[in-house]
Amino acid sequence: MSAPLRLGTRRSALALAQSQQIADALSRVSGRAVDLVPIVSEGDVNRGSLSQLGGRGVFANGLREALAAGECDLLVHSLKDLPTAQPDGLVIAATPSRVDARDVVITRDGTPLAALPEGSVVGTGSPRRVAQVLRHNHRVQMRDLRGNVDSRLARVRDGDLDAVVLAAAGLARLGGDLGGLFAEAMGLDEWPTAPGQGSLAVETREDAASDLLEALAVLDDQQTRIEITAERAVLATLDAGCHAPVGTHAGVTDGDLRIRAVVYALDGGHRIAIDRTVRLEPGYARSAGSGDGAIAADGADPIARAARTGDDVAHRLLERGAADLVPRESTP
């Protein structure tokens, strides 16, 4: 019998839950046992603000070092936490089907974010979410926030905070129990989220055994990979870190890839937005409201098409002044 596969994961309840889901799926596909290998990341021990730490891959570096050193066979990441530059020798071998990409605002009594009274305190560690909250309700106060999902919910329940902003996907993967709190889901058109939000990334070494790579390929969802490729291409071309004030969401419907990207001023007072739709097969590209007309197709590969579209959207954002709003990535 083959030795169990070793899946490296962060130690948080959310990381363990999503890693176990992948472990179970991989075990079914490969016929091999999959053991979780908890690993401590810099983001788990460094309690600094995510707005200062997020651009350096603080939730991924320790795991990737363990993978490169042979301490595990594969990793599971929340894709939104991964820098866009892929390390030499490692490959994202699977992006399983994405779940809900929206953010949710959690409150004690169900008051919508826009109706929270002046002085209400909203917690988040994300500059993007800070800007989006302030655009929806400039009367609230923002508080920088770290900690796991349960601790964040507890701070609302105990009255320390009036609201927190969380990813719907993370709540769902933990079972969705809010303990009596209320969730307001934020629509993706007005509130696009972090590139890759709702998606997991399964990473392994490029020289991994062929049977492992083949098993992981079965877990890969092409629509998800197309969408996240477009989203992450925006972030890469903007040269921005994972926690930059950039919201991007791409979706595939009837052969069309639509991507919406918004860059925010940190105080929420200004934003620059692009909405673009392209055909994934040879055809044309349409920019919503732009009157651009037909643009020659540049190839049938939908992944390459998605990457080019994200790159084009980012260049258009830069032409409109996005560089003045986005902090640059601190490291590759």
Molecular structure report:
The protein is an alpha/beta fold. The protein folds into three domains: 5-96 and 199-220, Periplasmic binding protein-like II (D-Maltodextrin-Binding Protein, domain 2), CATH 3.40.190.10; 103-185, D-Maltodextrin-Binding Protein, domain 2 (3-Layer(aba) Sandwich); 227-324, Porphobilinogen deaminase, C-terminal domain (Double Stranded RNA Binding Domain), CATH 3.30.160. It contains ten helices and 14 strands. The strands form three sheets. A five-stranded mixed β-sheet has the order 2-1-3-10-4, with helices on both faces. α5 links the parallel β6 and β7.
Could you state the oligomeric state of the chains shown?
Answer: single chain
How much of the sequence lies in strands comes to 15-25%
How many domain units? Answer: 3
The CATH architecture assignment of the largest domain turns out to be 3-Layer(aba) Sandwich
Poorly predicted ranges = 283-298
Kindly provide the name of the CATH class of the largest domain: Alpha Beta
Structural class: alpha/beta
- Counted beta strands: 14
Please work out how many helical segments DSSP would assign: 10
Topology:
Blueprint: E1 5-9, H1 13-30, E2 34-38, H2 42-45, H3 50-53, H4 61-68, E3 74-78, E4 90-94, E5 103-107, E6 121-123, H5 127-136, E7 141-143, H6 149-157, E8 163-167, H7 168-173, E9 182-185, E10 200-205, H8 210-219, H9 222-238, E11 246-253, E12 256-264, E13 271-279, E14 285-287, H10 302-319
Parallel strand pairs: 1-2, 1-3, 6-7, 6-8
Antiparallel strand pairs: 3-10, 4-10, 5-8, 5-9, 11-12, 12-13, 13-14
